[in-house]
Write a structure and sequence with these properties.
By secondary structure, the chain is α/β, with parallel strands linked by helices. About 55% of the residues lie in helices and about 15% in strands. The chain is built from nine helices and five strands.
């Protein structure tokens, strides 16, 4: 079945290897694009869909490991799977510490690469879903009034309306209204739900380090 909602990029300066990898990846229904160099890859506008990068360690002009670092510095969050015919343990350790999904030494089993690609795509799906959720929560938070934003951290601590009113120097009835409004605007179904949202938004909570 064709997976039109994801893409696998391949960078390798060896034409035969690129063609072989393209054939393998397409054989399991995944869309792929191949490049002979990092420079050519950077000309590409990355689509807003889950993706991963199969990257040769040794490339003309720059090493795959250096390119991995450049991507991270440029805030390009794409899971990387390294392939190499000249790997060693320090090289693989460096790659994995920098967040690589896998480090495969040629010749490797086709299934090992396909498994790593699936892990990479799932990792990117998870990241994108998390970022979309955070964006939605931020948009909801932005709709709160300044007073509702002031009340929210106190609600998250589990304090009663009367206690929050004392902390903020206002009436219990006013806090009750603000609490109801912020729960509605944040679309929180319960206090536990609101606590999770506040954690994800990293909202400072009184009494917590």
């Amino acid at each position: 079945m064709k997976d039109a909602d994801s893409i696998v990029f391949v960078i390798d300066d060896d034409t035969a290897i690129r063609e072989s990898l393209e054939s393998l990846i397409r054989s399991v229904g995944l869309h792929t694009e191949t490049f002979p160099s990092t420079r050519e890859f950077l000309k590409e506008k990355l689509p807003e869909i889950p993706s991963c990068l199969v990257l040769d360690v040794r490339l003309p002009g720059t090493s795959g490991l250096n390119f991995q670092r450049e991507l991270a510095e440029a805030k390009v969050h794409i899971p990387v799977i390294f392939i190499t015919g000249h790997g060693d343990i320090p090289m693989s350790v460096r790659a994995m510490k920098a967040g690589a999904v896998e480090f495969l030494t040629k010749p490797f089993r086709d299934q090992d690469l396909l498994d790593a690609i699936q892990v990479g795509l799932e990792k990117d799906r998870g990241r994108r879903a998390h970022e979309a959720e955070i964006l939605t929560l931020r948009q909801r938070f932005e709709r709160l009034t300044p007073r509702e934003r002031e009340v929210l951290p106190w609600v998250v601590t589990g304090k009663l309306n009367k206690q929050i009113a004392a902390e903020l120097g206002t009436s219990e009835a006013t806090v009750k209204v603000h609490r109801s409004q912020l729960m509605r605007k944040m679309r929180a179904q319960s206090l536990a739900d609101l606590v999770r949202m506040a954690d994800k938004l990293k909202i400072p909570v009184p009494g917590r380090p």
